[in-house]
Structures are given as C-alpha cells and as structure tokens.
Amino acid sequence: MSYIKPTLNNTLSITLVIIFIMTISACSNQVTSNKPVTNNKTTESSIEELQLYKNAIVALNNNDLDQAKALFISMSERQPNIAGSWANLALISIKQKDLAQAEDYAKTALEKNPNMAQAWNLSGYLAQKKGEIHNAKNYYLKAISNKSDYALAHYNLALLFDIYLQDITKAIEHYQFYLAYNGEKDENTENWLESLQATMAANN
C-alpha cells in the first residue's frame, strides 16, 4: 500500500486568535469601585472594535486578504496592544508572499504577548522558509510550551524532524500529538504515521 506523505503546505491552514475578541469585550465589563456606572462611550467603542475584529476574521476566512488586512490594520491602530491583530497581519503577509513584512508583524505580536503560541508558530514557519531550521524548531517548541495542545505546532515540528532533521522518533511523537489534538480526521497523516512506525519496527 502506498502512503501520501504530509507536506509543508498544511502549515498555513490556520485561523488565528479568534479568542482575542474576548479581550476586547472584556474591557467594557471592567468597573472600578469609585466608578460604578458604565461609561457609555467606552462601551460603544468596545462594541465597535469587537465588530471590527469579527469582520476582519470573516474576511480572512473568506481569503479576502486585502479587506482583512485593512481591517486588522485599523484594529491595530485602535487597540495596538492586542497581539492577535499583529499575528493575523503576519499570516496575511505570508499568504501574500511578503515574508519580510510578515516577520515584522510576527515580532510585534510577540512584543505585545510573548506567550502567544500562534505568533511563535508563525515565526517558526518564517524561519523555516529562510532555511533556519534550528531556529524554526526552537520557535515551534516555544509555541507548544505556551500551548501544549496546539496541534498545528506539533504538526510543523513533526515535519521538521521528519524531513529536515531525520529524527524519525521525534517525528512520530509529534505526529501522534498532532493527531490527538487535531479536531478533524487527517487520514493522510494517519497513514504516513503508520508507515513510519512500520519502518521503525522493521529496522529494530
């Protein structure tokens, strides 16, 4: 039986940081003891930003990259400390093949939130594209150290160990983590993992 080997093309099959919408909505719910009345202007602004972010995510999901970029830039101007906007701008720049710009955006995302797994994963992808394999490995490891069940980072690590570093034991480990944490069935990767495991068993 022949197996289809997983490819690097899957490394961009992600939708980033939708959960960062919650950061915006949470701002409107904060009340200090000496100001018990909600500031309506602040609430309205937060609602507008929430809708702006949602619209940007929808545009990105629809692959309307120019619209998504414009919306995320607007969001980054209104809420510059929200790392999600910068990470999504990095993803858009990768899709538009502007890797230098993507790297700048990814760095900004990590400056805003050094624990953001998605931004580390993107940084790993960018390092990998430049041939900086060991840097890529460290960035992917950083991603999963911040989010241990981050399936895509495990997948990227598996590919790195499999294709570039020729460490099949590590590759198998991270393919297994990927399949365990991935929300969808991936038959190609399952078959490839079986092939690797059979090869390892035959060589032992």
From TrEMBL:
PANTHER family from the UniProt entry: INTRAFLAGELLAR TRANSPORT PROTEIN 88 HOMOLOG (PTHR44117)
Protein name, entry field: Tetratricopeptide TPR_1 repeat-containing protein
One of the Pfam families matching this protein, by short name: TPR_8
TPR repeat intervals: 83-116
Native source organism of the sequence: Colwellia psychrerythraea
Upper taxonomic lineage: Bacteria, Pseudomonadati, Pseudomonadota, Gammaproteobacteria, Alteromonadales
Cellular component, GO annotation: centriole
Domain of life: Bacteria
Example GO molecular function: kinesin binding
Record keywords: TPR repeat
